[in-house]
Specification:
Blueprint lengths: L1 E7 L4 H11 L5 E8 L5 H8 L4 E3 L8 H14 L4 E4 L8 H6 L4 E5 L11 H8 L3 E8 L9 E8 L6 H24 L3 E4 L2 E4 L2
Parallel strand pairs: 1-2, 1-4, 2-3, 4-5
Antiparallel strand pairs: 5-6, 6-7, 8-9
Helix pairs in contact: 1-6, 5-6
The chain binds 5-O-phosphono-beta-D-ribofuranosylamine (GRF).
The site of 5-O-phosphono-beta-D-ribofuranosylamine has 13 residues, from helix 1, strand 5 and helix 6.
GO biological process, one term: 'de novo' IMP biosynthetic process
Function: Catalyzes the transfer of a formyl group from 10-formyltetrahydrofolate to 5-phospho-ribosyl-glycinamide (GAR), producing 5-phospho-ribosyl-N-formylglycinamide (FGAR) and tetrahydrofolate.
EC number: 2.1.2.2
Amino acid sequence: MINVGVLVSGRGTNLQAIIEAIEEGKIEGKIKIVISDNLDAYALKRAEQHNVETQYINHKEFKNREDYDKKIVETLKNKEVELVVLAGYMRILSSYFIKAYKNKIINIHPALLPSFPGLRAQKQAVEYGVKISGCTVHFVDEGMDSGPIILQSAVEVSEDDTEESLAERILKEEHQIYAQAIQLFSQGRLIIKGRKVFIKK
Ligand code: GRF
């Protein structure tokens, strides 16, 4: 059983998928807290509907990113969180945060990294004209979408895809592989060696 903390900023469909995977026994873990930097995030409502504790932390009350992250880390540690899951969290983590939870922070990105890091990855993929895109679960390091890759899932891009239609198909895959990756972490099966993640059988 692993204690999970989830950071969100928006609608929270990945959070929803994780909550459901836990309820169905597909993840051996418990969400101890959902933290949002956005009071209006629909993700907070989803958590509350499943009796998951939430906290809104307003970055405007802190003088810089590090002080804000110190508050978040303190909150996570108080809840004995062992794995930090970024699920549509729109803020860049300070190195303080990354060091405090070294190799214990994961993110999901809606492209096959290292292609199309950064914002609006699905739009980038459509505009570039790739035939295959997808999503990536990775550990978070100090770079932008650059940490060791845990799982990926590929999605075909059709000629008439728009950013929205591609995003919708990728999202279905996100919900699958994020839950799988959390379960692998929970089982202690993810071994990081340099850039690579090895999955113990
Ligand atoms: C997803 O597309 C995820 O890949 C990206 O942000 C989006 C979050 O969506 N990091 P949701 O809030 O989980 O619905």
